[in-house]
Specification:
Oligomer: single chain
Number of helices: 3
CATH class: Mainly Beta
Order of helices and strands: HEEEEEHEEEEEEHE
CATH topology: Jelly Rolls
Shape: globular
Distance between the termini: 132 Å
Length: 229
Amino acid sequence: MDQQPNQFQPPQEPINQEPEFKQSLIQPSQPNKKLWMYVLVGLIIVGGVLGFWWWQQSNTKTTNWQTYRNDGYGFEVKYPNDFDFVEGEADFLGRYYIGIGPHFFGAGQPLATVAFPEGAYNSETDFEGGYFSVNHNTSGTIEDCQKSEGGTMTDTQELNGVIFTKTEIGGVAGGHSSRDIIYHTFRDEGCYELVLGLRYENVTNKPHVNEDEVIQTLDQILSTFRFIE
């Protein structure tokens, strides 16, 4: 039996195969839309509850207040039972060193004024008095209504559905000082003015009154002002 000669085959070089790299795009984590929706709804609910609570507290406090209604000029306002009330011109010059007349850019007619009772805070602080007044002017235009004796009123604020222009002025005289926050709106061919006024006696060494507390009370009176049909 013939033997086949062995055929020599050189060893084959190992083939280095490059590892295959598959590009994978790592997607950034996306926020959970449902979670954000729940958070948003929760914030809306909390805001609504707090708003209703504040409205309820404010309404409850003013429910038993006195109500002044002026059918001739078409408005009403509430004020605390122990506050002083004057219809028409209020002569508080005997109580306040600095007067409380209208702040129109021109003449004005006082309609009603409510004031802290005499002696409020006086024994402990420099507080001389505070008041809320309603004044009226028919001699000017809409542009005039946007001015006061302190200059042009640039800020605006909505009060029970009506837009008012707003400004603030202060004064010093004879050891006394004043701060008045003034609101104007033009309606029925006339300019209505609402004033939150504060008076201080600076000649004493008494501590300054808690101004935020005083303004909070005056703001509550302001919040009850509304025009009537």
